[in-house]
Amino acid sequence: MQLIRQGAEAKLFKTKHSGKDALLKQRIEKDYRCRELDDKLRKERTTLEGNLLVKARKFGVSTPKIYGVDREKSEILMEFIEGSRIKDVLNDKNLNLCKEIGKAIALMHENGLVHGDLTTSNIMLQGKELYFIDFGLGFHSRKLEDKAVDLLVFKKTFEATHCNLMPKGWEMIIEGYLQGKGDRAVAAQMRKVEQRARYH
Ligand SMILES: Nc1ncnc2c1ncn2[C@@H]1O[C@H](COP(=O)(O)OP(=O)(O)OP(=O)(O)O)[C@@H](O)[C@H]1O
Ligand SMILES: [Mg+2]
User: Fold this and answer.
1) Domain 2-79 has CATH 3.30.365.10
2) Which residue, 125, 160, 165, 178, is the most exposed by fewest CB within 10 angstroms?
3) pLDDT digits over 106-116, tens only?
4) Is 38 designated active site?
């Protein structure tokens, strides 16, 4: 197994599954959290992430295929996405990808799934296809407010990471969101939450 990345929450290894490249995501111990709580959180997030990755794929958002989830070891074995993070490849020539990102988020929200950690590091591009990953903070919700906060968190990281593509990039994300059956009320609520945060 080859360690390809050490994330904030996990170690990511490239390995093999039935002869194919695979990705093992192993949630690591955090020594600042008390042991029992840490064990519990890692197991819960692993199970949750596995479930949400499968669920999202069922309603048409591309995610890596899941080969196996080991709750006790806090590990998920999944399809290896041979591609790049959107963070590393998004530019003014392929800005249309923003629309596709918005559409995919609308599809998640439409189906009651809030990602919880939308960033361009958690979206990958393989060929022409977008893959969403890192659902460990995701949850089910039909609430306007939850979806609005999901968008706002994304907007904040997007602005910080891709300041050179602002404001167009974000406008295209919202355009895609609305084209893809995203609720106008969610976008409006996001602006409200944003204003509220500003005056606090
Ligand atoms: N299925 C996959 N195929 C290929 N690369 C992957 C896959 N899953 C994750 N990666 C790579 O590993 C990185 C970290 O994965 P992930 O976001 O799931 O873990 P994390 O612990 O939350 O990391 P971070 O703190 O960087 O967000 C991704 O940004 C991506 O580069
Ligand atoms: Mg991540």
Assistant:
1) no
2) 160
3) 999 999 999 99
4) no
